[in-house]
Design brief:
The chain has about 425 residues and is of the alpha+beta class. The protein folds into 2 domains: about 170 residues, Pnp Oxidase, Chain A (Roll), CATH 2.30.110.10; about 210 residues, Gcn5-related N-acetyltransferase (GNAT) (Aminopeptidase, 3-Layer(aba) Sandwich). It is built from 9 helices and 17 strands. Strand 13 and strand 14 form a beta hairpin. It starts with 19 loop residues before the first strand and ends with a helix. The model has no long low-confidence stretch (mean pLDDT about 90).
Length: about 425
């Protein structure tokens, strides 16, 4: 197999021949990037053009269709087709109307498409089609049944008679038009996915192949301590969060009111996952390390990877676990990850100026109060919130880490002593009864 396709009468341009390309790798890259194509064929002497999905496997293009559709029926004994794919990369605005254009990459393939009948080849082609939606999606979904496969037609077109056409660059205006006052230039066009919208009843977090960022700064890595385990927040935690956080005092100083029903918690979880996909937040759920019970949430936000800065916030912990070591250990785990894994230079916190309990808790972590941000955010009641700004630097972290570990150790010793005293008291009462 050569690196180029040989031009034919059908793949040779009659104008703008400089834009024609026959490079095999270029053709393959365009076909692989595009999700859909148009297939032209003839039925009863009349032309038909259908949009459909495709996938390339080696030098063969597979086209998706229905076994009862026109394309599938016409291909039982093979049918001549013309397949086209176009990726628009930009709109070119010229000073003159006639020189407006587009930057694009396109492929046109001619040939005789055959119906795929071999079960193994058909299953492999179907897998390639599904994996085109995201690498690994075929393994992450139910395979087709025999009935579903019978209802689906797949056509195979060997990529032999193929050409690409490419336009790049800027405006091409007549010299006489260059002094005209009209704006000219290129508007780039990019095809990008938006934040995933999880279907109702799905408990898992959106998979990595749906896009977003894969940076460790945006990854909610699992971290486990003695009092808490931090895991990636998912829709499956909604019911547990609603049960753990059903307390108005927990929400007193937060930017959202106390949810009245689980769907409101679901909306907050969906919003957090959308923000994670956009690179704005990294949400964790706080779980009991032994039982897995949901206790609350915490997050990174205002993530600035180039500046090596991150904030900790949006923390909510059920009242049952206040003053239990959970909050302290959660912050210790988050700070260890920020400074020791990610290499952060600064970690900071915002809190409502009225939330004195939160301010004391942040100060106990070893953060310094660096200032006040006036009219920082709107509260749920419509009033403006002034936020106190706390920060800790990488230089301050080692001392803060030592103090936090000492605090946790002291709390654990006190808890063990209390438990032992309770056990002794129970034993004494048992002896007296005996």
């Amino acid at each position: 197999m050569t690196d180029t396709y040989s031009p034919t009468a059908r793949t040779t341009a009659t104008r703008n021949r400089a834009r024609m390309r026959y490079d095999r790798d270029l053709v393959h890259s365009i076909l692989d990037e595009a999700y859909d194509c148009s297939v032209a064929f003839v039925v009863d002497g009349e032309p038909r053009v259908l949009p459909t999905l495709h996938a390339r496997v080696g030098g063969t293009l597979f086209l998706h269709g229905s076994s009862g559709g026109r394309l599938g029926l016409s291909a039982r004994d093979g049918t001549q087709v013309c397949v086209s794919v176009t990726l628009v990369d930009g709109i070119v605005y010229a000073r003159s109307q006639m020189h407006h254009s587009a930057n694009y990459r396109s492929v046109v393939a001619h040939g005789r498409a055959r119906l795929v009948t071999d079960p193994a080849e058909k299953l492999a082609a179907m897998t390639a089609l599904v994996d085109k939606f995201g690498s690994g999606r075929a393994a992450d979904s139910r395979p087709p049944t025999r009935k579903e496969m019978a209802e689906t037609s797949l056509l195979a077109l060997v990529l032999d008679e193929v050409s690409a056409r490419v336009r790049t660059g800027g405006v091409v205006d007549e010299e006489a038009d260059l002094t005209l006052p009209h704006w000219a230039g290129v508007l780039p066009i990019r095809r990008v996915g938006g934040p995933p919208e999880t279907d109702e009843g799905v408990a898992a977090a959106p998979p990595a192949y749906l896009g977003g960022t894969s940076s460790p700064w945006q990854t909610a890595a699992t971290m486990t301590g003695r009092h808490v385990r931090l895991e990636q927040l998912t829709p499956g935690h909604v019911d547990g969060l609603f049960a753990a956080l059903d307390d108005a005092e927990t929400w007193e100083f937060l930017s959202a009111p106390c949810p009245a029903h689980r769907d409101q918690i679901g909306e907050l979880v969906t919003g957090a996952l959308r923000a994670q996909w956009l690179g704005e937040r990294v949400p964790w759920v706080q779980l009991h390390p032994q039982t897995g019970e949901v206790m609350g949430t915490t997050m990174y936000h205002d993530v600035d990877e180039p500046g090596r800065v991150v904030a900790i916030g949006h923390s909510m912990l059920g009242r049952r676990w206040w003053r239990s070591g959970v909050n302290t250990e959660s912050k210790l785990l988050l700070l260890e990850r920020a400074f020791e894994v990610l290499g952060a230079e600064r970690v900071f916190w915002y809190t409502d100026i009225r939330n004195e309990r939160s301010q004391r808790a942040i100060a106990r972590l070893g953060a310094s109060r660096d200032g006040l941000i006036r009219r920082h955010r709107l509260r749920p009641d419509g009033t403006w919130r002034d936020s106190v700004y706390f920060a800790m630097t990488a230089d301050e972290w080692p001392a803060a880490r030592g103090r936090l570990r000492e605090r946790l150790a002291a709390a654990e010793t006190a808890a063990e002593a209390k438990a032992a005293a309770g056990a002794d008291a129970d034993a004494g009462r048992t002896t007296q009864r005996a």
